[in-house]
Design brief:
The chain is mainly α and about 160 residues long. The chain has 8 helices and 2 strands. The chain has a two-stranded antiparallel ribbon with strand order 1-2. Helix 1 packs across helix 8 and helix 2 packs across helix 8. The protein starts with a helix and ends with a helix.
Length: about 160
């Protein structure tokens, strides 16, 4: 995966994807969820996240307390020590990583804490969830992070032009 090319392309396509997002808002919730689920399954049947890991290299998941407690155990640390070493509170008051790439990302793009990874990582990029209407802004943002989400929006945009 050529991440530099992806970064440039996703930036160039962002305005078009914003228009696509507004069209997606007009679709009934159940139909939208079904569209995204089908697109998610189709894209991830072809895309291997281990070839990319851009999400792990550029963004931070939100860590909820149960994530913190679970991952701290991996390191045999107290939750407070884990927070001090790896996390800070962002402007919304959520715990996020102090640095990127993720300190748990291995050189081969695997995750050191994969079995215990945060809920947000387990669910990323959130394109197979219910209530996609509620996260369309987040999904639009993810078009600049995840090549699969970018491709989903590209495909949806083409469908609207038909």
């Amino acid at each position: 995966m050529d991440l530099e090319n992806f970064k440039n392309q996703s930036k160039a396509d962002f305005t078009i994807h914003k228009k696509t997002k507004e069209r997606l808002r007009k679709i009934k919730p159940k139909a939208l969820d079904k569209m995204f689920l089908e697109a998610h399954e189709e894209k991830f049947s072809k895309i291997d996240c281990l070839n990319c890991a851009n999400c792990c290299k550029t963004t931070s998941p939100i860590f909820i307390q149960t994530d913190i407690d679970r991952i701290a155990k991996v390191f045999r640390m107290k939750s407070s020590a884990f927070i001090d070493e790896y996390l800070y509170r962002d402007e919304e008051g959520d715990f996020v990583l102090k640095s990127s790439p993720c300190p748990f990302l291995n050189e081969d793009n695997t995750c050191f804490v994969y079995e215990e990874r945060p809920k947000a990582c387990r669910e990323y990029p959130h394109t197979n969830r219910k209530n996609m209407h509620g996260i369309l802004n987040l999904t639009l943002t993810n078009t600049q992070v995840c090549p699969a989400v970018h491709e989903i929006f590209q495909d949806f945009g083409k469908d609207f032009r038909k």
